Amino acid sequence: MSTLSDEVKTFIVQQLACFDPPSVVVKAVKAEFAETVSPQQVEAYNPERRAGQGLSEQYRELFQATRAAFLENAASIGISHRVTRLRALQRLAERAETQGNIALAAQLLAQAAKEVGGVFTNKRENELTGKDGAPLVDGGITVAFVRAAPVDAG
Of the chain's two ends, which shows fewer C-beta atoms within 10 Å, N or C? Predict the structure, then answer.
């Protein structure tokens, strides 16, 4: 394996910071720079992995800055928003129905229902009431604090 240029090293670190797996980075390096690198070689540029523990401070900082920028900009990706996904599902369902593909239309409607119902999130709603909205425990628990006489240590 040849020694990589700073440009290739920077590219690898940034791709890894954007959560691309080593196999994808290997292909991207080949396409972008016409250089062949191994997945193990790429892994050495990820400071979050054992192989990357010896990575220089310069590339560690680049990794962290790129990761932070990537996560901050995720909101700018349209499909990350529920309303965008629902609009796309609506267009697809309408097209499927127009073309007579009822099975696909039904599948897309089910997908939209799951989207609206929050199936694709990790948020969970917990019911904090009893039957018909009543409190979970009727009445309350009464606790009486009694001041005890000091114990003689003697």
Answer: C
